[in-house]
Amino acid sequence: MALRNDMRGERAPGRDRRMSKALEIWLALAAGALMAAAVAVPLPPLLAFAIGAVLAFALARLPGRRRAVSFATPEPGAEPPGAAAVEAEARESREMSSAFAQDLVERLPTPLLIIAQGGRISFANSAARAALPRIRSGEHFAGVIRAPAFVEAVNATFADGGERTIEFTTLRDQERFFEARVARLPETGSFGPERQVIVRVDDRTQARRAEQQRSDFIANASHELRTPLAAIIGYVETLQHHARDDPGARERFLGIMAREAGRMRRLVDDLLSLSRIEMHEHLRPSEQWSLNQIAFESATALLPVAEQQGVHLRVEVPTGGAPVAGDRDQLAQVFANLVDNAMKYGGKDAVVRVFAAPPSKAFPNRVGISVSDTGPGIPREHVPRLTERFYRVNASQSRNKGGTGLGLAIVKHILNRHGGRLEIASAPGEGSVFTVWLRPAEAGPAGEAVATEERAPAEADQRIA
Length: 465
What we know:
This protein is of the alpha+beta class. It is 46% helix and 17% strand. The protein folds into 4 domains: 10-70 and 82-109; 110-203, 2-Layer Sandwich (Beta-Lactamase), CATH 3.30.450; 215-279, Helix Hairpins (Orthogonal Bundle), CATH 1.10.287; 284-464, Histidine kinase-like ATPase, C-terminal domain (Heat Shock Protein 90, 2-Layer Sandwich). The chain contains 13 helices and 15 strands. A 6-stranded mixed beta sheet has the order 7-9-10-12-11-15. Strands 2-1-5-4-3 form a 5-stranded antiparallel beta sheet, sandwiched between helices. A two-stranded antiparallel sheet has the order 6-8. It is elongated, with a radius of gyration of 35 Å. The termini are far apart.
């Protein structure tokens, strides 16, 4: 007769197995929910991993739960499970929990490293391998990330178990900025028998560069405004004292003040225009216009200015065709800026042409308008930076000609909004050609313009002749 010891609440083997299976299913469902939440909601990676590690550890412990003590007589011919079978089952469970933990870390979108006590990298997820291409499992972390602050933080966390956040830079190929958070990992054995730390690595390069660009922009804008303002204040003081009774000096100084005030007005207008363009840069225009017509009207409006400057402006673009989806006023500003630059820097007796660009293999399925000049040309080292704010090839010449350093930056941001490209071809002594490329449009269901292709990010394509 079978006797069972139920004094401590032990369950029968069949019931015990059913309970273990049920718990395993619930834990698996909880782990799946965690992974879904980690993708949908940006949980702190260390918190997400800690919860996942606890779940994996619980899964690993399921085979070792309390087992019923049975004194039942085994069935004839049946053999009770031996110690080897129990150990094999426990080992298989540990391997499954380790694979589960590694899969969890692999799927998290944040770069994560697992480093063992001896410094060996136990595991690096795909996000970490993308952020740090030199990362290899099995290598010492100090040989991969050669940053003293990072090495000290990892060693200190191994020593006292405290969490640390540090910043470091890498100089391979180009300078990159990172922020790392180091914490002790629960000892579940999922990544090896040694003590482990988990490291979250965030690439801050883009944010750092954006902050630097903002700082540079503020500094440049302040300088550009301060220079004409200082000149105006100086001449005002002179007129109030020494030149008060000198009609000739007074007229000369008033002329300079008017020129400097006009320069300030142009700079403020360009800054406001750039701010408005950036505010709506994510909104794609839908109205249909003729690119040729816009270029023709913008260029012919500058004919009187060209005559005053002694520049031969030739408008050779047809007055219709090349339909595009766009903002008419902004596209007119693009061509006005390009033609004005060509006349300004081409110099007296320069020839400036505005014409329809022939089809280009580099820009398939696009329509283009080119603005060329016979000026001195641009050295190749300056071409890639022409669309940067306040960048000038010759700063003093630009200021003397009334330039603000924002004209091509405005062109670039307008083309960004339109999904267009700016091609620049130039060489010293051979003049320059600036070509605007836009996707043609066809009429949509409500009379709106629809681009024939998907929008692509717009950048300036610098082509050195």
